[in-house]
Write a structure and sequence with these properties.
It is built from no helices and six strands. Strands 1, 2, 3, 4, 5 and 6 form a six-stranded antiparallel β-sheet that branches. It is mainly beta and 95 residues long.
Length: 95
Amino acid sequence: DRALQIGLSVELHLDASSGQQLTLPKTALKKDGKGAVVYRVKKGGLLERVAVDVGAQRGDRVVVRNGVTKTDRIVADASQSNLAVGQRISPVSIQ
């Protein structure tokens, strides 16, 4: 029985980051041998592959600790087979 009882103590470790966290749709991440990557759209519409450090998953979104910023344009579905580094794309806004 692992129930708490009077006189016993418990140790908790909470990830309580202060401020807002950057999240991306889970579909924007692609796993590779070293971790997770996303496709970022550079100036001129060229794609680049960027390694990101991910944290907790909340529903269909994943916390991104570093690798991209809130102003970066990221491909929403990294599973598309026709994505290639250096490829020129035309971004569209999704409402």
